């Protein structure tokens, strides 16, 4: 839990070293990374994966370098964490409706494969919820009234020459809520933030953006708050006193 909570590259590599490159790649493939999702849009990218048999490559791949993925692939993976381990086929179109209101064609949810046990997805949701805590890297992703889960990401940006660009980053946060039974997954990616007001990390820039989106999404979906809201008790106490 603490490896995720503190976003420890060393801790992540120690786990990757235990499972080995072969198992690592089998998991990567199972979740659909470095593969097109088949979404109803042209121009979709596969993403790239470095050679895991190279020890240096593999040590970097353990915590995200040497692997390029699309936000949609990440959303699919977190969707599996959220729904009990089922990797779902993404859809842009839910249904086609004629002018008279008749449904011409409907696209039902489709399971691609089971990628983890339901118990494992529950354990992951619990671990990722600790990332969105006061001790985690994504404390600023918290949404009032809800227990959220997610993970921060901070990577040095690659230039057109294929080299890392010093001082330039891609920061991200992927999250879901409510953590116990997620209703939606949201991926926030910010390319090359240039602010000097805060350190340019996923937890300082992308996480607060998720918090704002998550609050609005929860209201739009009429989700019932499950956690106490800070300040609400004081307001109720004053109201009762008056």
Structure characteristics:
two-stranded antiparallel sheet, alpha+beta, 242 residues, 7 helices, three-stranded antiparallel β-sheet
Please tell me about this protein's structure.
It is built from 7 helices and 9 strands; from the N terminus they run ααβαβαββββαβββαα. It is of the alpha+beta class and 242 residues long. The strands form 4 sheets. Strands 7-8-9 form a 3-stranded antiparallel beta sheet, with helices on both faces. Helix 2 packs across helix 3. The longest helix is centred in the first third of the chain and has 22 residues. It is globular, with a radius of gyration of 20 Å. The N and C termini lie far apart (45 Å).
Give a summary of the structure in a few sentences.
This protein has 242 residues and is of the alpha+beta class.
């Amino acid at each position: 839990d603490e490896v995720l909570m503190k976003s420890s590259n060393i801790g992540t590599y120690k786990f990757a070293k235990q499972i080995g490159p072969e198992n690592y790649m089998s998991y990567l493939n199972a979740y659909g990374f470095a593969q097109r999702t088949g979404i109803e849009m042209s121009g979709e990218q596969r993403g790239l994966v470095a050679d895991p048999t190279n020890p240096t490559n593999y040590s970097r791949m353990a915590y995200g370098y040497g692997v390029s993925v699309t936000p949609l692939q990440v959303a699919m993976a977190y969707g599996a964490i959220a729904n009990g381990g089922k990797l779902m086929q993404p859809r842009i179109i839910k249904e086609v409706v004629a002018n008279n209101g008749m449904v011409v064609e409907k696209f039902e949810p489709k399971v691609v494969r089971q990628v983890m046990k339901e118990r494992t997805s529950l354990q992951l949701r619990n671990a990722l919820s600790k990332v969105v805590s006061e001790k985690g890297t994504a404390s600023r992703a918290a949404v009032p009234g809800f227990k959220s889960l997610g993970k921060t990401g901070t990577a040095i940006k690659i230039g057109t020459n294929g080299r890392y660009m010093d001082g330039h980053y891609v920061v991200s946060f992927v999250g879901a809520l409510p953590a116990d039974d997620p209703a939606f997954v949201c991926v926030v990616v910010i390319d090359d933030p240039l602010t000097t007001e805060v350190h340019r990390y996923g937890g300082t820039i992308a996480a607060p953006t998720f918090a704002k989106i998550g609050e609005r999404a929860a209201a739009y979906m009429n989700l019932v708050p499950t956690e106490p809201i800070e300040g609400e008790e004081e307001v109720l106490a004053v109201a009762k006193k008056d």
